[in-house]
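Can't paste images in this forum, so I'm doing it all in text. The chain is below; anyone willing to post the predicted structure tokens underneath?
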Amino acid sequence: MSETEEKQPFPKSLSRKQRRVLGVLLEKAFTTPEQYPLTLKASTTGCNQKSNRDPVTNYSEDDVQQTLEELQRLGLLGCLHTEGGRTERYRHYMRHRTTLTEPQLAILTELLLRGKQQMGDLRTRASRMVAIDTQDLLRQELAGLMELGLVRANGPLDRRGIEVDHNLYADNENREPMAVWTETPEPAAPSEPVERPRAASAPASTSHLEETISELKQQLVDLRDEVSSLKDEVNDLRRQAGL
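Text version of the structure:
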């Protein structure tokens, strides 16, 4: 990469295809480094795989080739040639173009590939690329991404049920709305105490158990997705080998 490319400002928006292709290059660099950088065929397969993607796409190699060239002009990836010069391979330049940490790159990758999601799901999925051991660590990394304008959320990161998403949508794109949360001032305390009936609440132990069960179910879904993804990659390697 030249110094001119390094000094280019990071794009404020990317098209759907650009986000998918860039996300695939980032993901494969994390999860299958032995197959990275990617060929055009592998990049196309990664874009269209049925697991860990939302929405599922059906891009042609021509679609992906054009998108790779667009991203190359933006300085976000480079094209390498093998010793024989017959096969071009592509690698991302996100580590050169940004100051993002490895967890932040993994988080952004997950958002580029699957879009808006709750923080518990995001941590589970991003952790298959880089360990993110706690929700506090996830919040810390997300806060840095939000300061850079790369991520948005529909509320403060310490609230339950908050959803986060990347913020790289094109201006004319019909993005899924995220309500903006604003803090409502606490009502003034009455001058005299008022008796109010106590609302029944579920025992804390029951609430914690339900949350644990929900997390375990999500982990099972993600494990199935990962197994499916690995099967897709094995089948692609077999096709390439003519088996």
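The first strand starts at residue 38 and ends at 39. Residues 1-7, 180-188 have pLDDT under 50 and may be disordered.
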